[in-house]
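Forwarding the complex inputs:
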Amino acid sequence: MTAVLVDELRVIRGKRVVLPELSCEVAAGRVTGLLGPSGSGKSTLIRSIVGVQRVAGGRVTVLGAPAGSKELRSRVGYMTQAPSVYRDLTVRENLRFFARVLDAPRGAAERAIEVVSLADHADAIVGRLSGGQLSRASLAVALLGGPDMLVLDEPTVGLDPVLRRDLWQLFHELAETGKTLLVSSHVMDEADRCDSLLLLREGRILAAATPAELKAQTGAEGLDDAFLRLIDEAGT
Amino acid sequence: MRRGATLAVAIRVLSQLRRDPRTIALIIGVPWLLETLLEQLFAGRSEVFQHVGAPLLGTFPLVTMFLVTSITMLRERLSGTLERLMTLPLGKLDLLAGYGIAFALLAALQIAVVSAVTFGLLGLHTAGPQWLVAALAVANAVLGCALGLFVSAFAQTEFQAVQFMPAFVLPQILLCGLFVARDSMATWLRWISDALPLTYAYEALARAAADTLDGRFAADVGVVSGCVLLSLALGAATLRRRTP
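Prediction (whole assembly, two chains):
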């Protein structure tokens, strides 16, 4: 089952061609990692999938509907790269606001706060939280209302190893309940935690495979190494 | 439109304001302090205060709400929260109406306080009904919101947004007829004045204060309402689900 189908997507920002002609798929019910160095077009691809990026060509289909269409607005949870929560409100006020907008059931806000382990900071002003807590507050908003698909732009940046492990565990638990997750990262050591990978470089898909396939294919031991070998191959 | 979503936005904006008591104190406190200053300044010539007191009362909310709205919307655009809202089941009208309700409440509070001081303590006398002056002031607040929303699309930083106030609002105050009667302006200035919404807001206020509630008054109110709708429509057009 395919959750996202990107077909010859072309995105131009300013005068720069960010995605020349990108095609890829995201499988349903799995954790797909979107990996690549910063500036490779990860956020642009993610923004196209959630339907906020102006595109110059191609098609993006999400859960059977064109990206950004009305019916998807309560089915896709999106976490932007910069923590998009209101800094002058508390964690709870933020979650309650977005829960109301989503028409989520009562208690959804509290559950989301629990899930990202922010219960102790629920009444703290978001602007006074640490960077990691801030991005978890932003993640909690994406979880609200139990969307069928989660699109998370670098959700684990700046988190300590324990929290990162916990979050990846959460992602897999969500995938086991049938949800689709697309998680971007520029840290290659997170690639091992994904069910499948999309490696992006300079607006092109370098590889789309599982971590094991990728290692077997390149003969590399680590994924960092595999990535380098793929770049070398593409260059020659 | 969804009432729940509109209400959610209004509650959120009011909670944000509540976190910033200093801003609220300035919004509520500055207008009546300025009216008091004006009254004291022309203590020997009370006709000046009687002449400009009411129009000024109606202009404060426009300036305040212009600034508050343009900065808040700019923050919403810069912080990514607008992008997130645009992926959620929230209509642009829900968002605008939510902001409108929150800021209209704030403006109503501001106007209630400045009216109480100006009409009560300072003894400003109007031939027309005072509630009408206050009501027009609320309409001006909404006009300020709508203009602020629109210009926020053209600012990249908060500095720029603040500078839009003197650029966008001060010329309107100078040319609306408050300082120099429009009849005695150079023709080209009067033409510009004809094209500015505050001119009609000022005239409506002056007519309400003088109790000349004639056809011209109705026309002025009509123009102001039209400007509110037009700038709201333009502002809504700047809220895009897809951005470059």
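The interface with chain A takes residues 2, 4-5, 7-9, 11-12, 15-16, 19-20, 79-81, 83-90, 241-244 of chain B (CB under 8 Å).
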